[in-house]
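Z., the sequence and structure:
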Amino acid sequence: MQRKKMLIAVLAIALLIGTVSATLLTYYGRIETSATVGQSVLLDDKDINGMPITETISAVGGDKVGRCHWLRNRASVPVTVQLVSWGGEGYGYYEYPEGVTVTYHKPLGYSWSGKTVHTGGAKPYEVDIKVVDGDCKVTWTFDFPIEGDLGNGNMGVALVIATDGTGKGPAFQIHNNDGTDSNYAWGTWLVSPWGPTIDDGWFGWHSGTLNKPVAELNWVSATGDRYKDGKLDDPTPNPTGTFTITIAKCMLGDEFHWAVWTGVGGFFNIAGNSAYPAAFDWTNPIVNDEVNYAKATIMQPLAATITLLPFQRIDIVICYKFDKAIAPGTFTIYTEVRPA
């Protein structure tokens, strides 16, 4: 009996050992990989963790204000994205508050350099002009020759902008007041409108209450004092004879025309004046394409759907247009870059 019990126990152990040794493996080995993946397309070199990008705009009805951004494809394959804008809660895509419009543009990198042409006065002279664009704006730089007499030491600059094309009149001029508007001190940078249907003015150019100081506007800026050495009524000197005028791209549009008038001695005491193009005429400022105005193409419309090639960067100008009849208020406008 005892031997029988021992045999049963041995058989039980053998059966148990046989069961353990028959267990199947769930895997032969394991690899654990930690993958850190960067976003393929960046907005202003920021990924989704850097969003949203916030910005503010100050404008009045009738203004076109722009903001510059860029997309960068870091992938080794093309990536197609879509720009989607809307007016926030309660608005569908591409729907904005009444009186607000959003458009996309591709900057083209416009630049130009040359000289004005002497057109009158006893003192012949030329002024160097350089035009460059960058950041959402276009800048004109004027460099006067400062050697010798400058007509009592003062310099006048006027930049004329036409935005409606050939056969149309200019929109406005930007100038350092040369005494034509007694409401402002000599040398005050002003924006003066043009419009032949308004009775007040000289060949469509207006003065007085229609002028607006550049310092009060958010889409234009200007630098440079009209006096080489400074005067009692305007003590800031400009020994280099350098002036700049900068205008927001969205106010200029994709394409526009421009002309320049410069003078020394003041409007009423001209020692010499010059223009570019030489055919520009204050008394007949209608645009004759590339004859009396220079033509500039600074942007082109950009579709909402964009394909970026491998490693490509695309710059974007987003223009916000505010209708002249828009009610005052603060609006939030959203623009997203989405996979297409």
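The CA atoms of residues 288 and 329 lie 40 Å apart. The first helix runs from residue 2 to 21.

Let me know what you think.
H.
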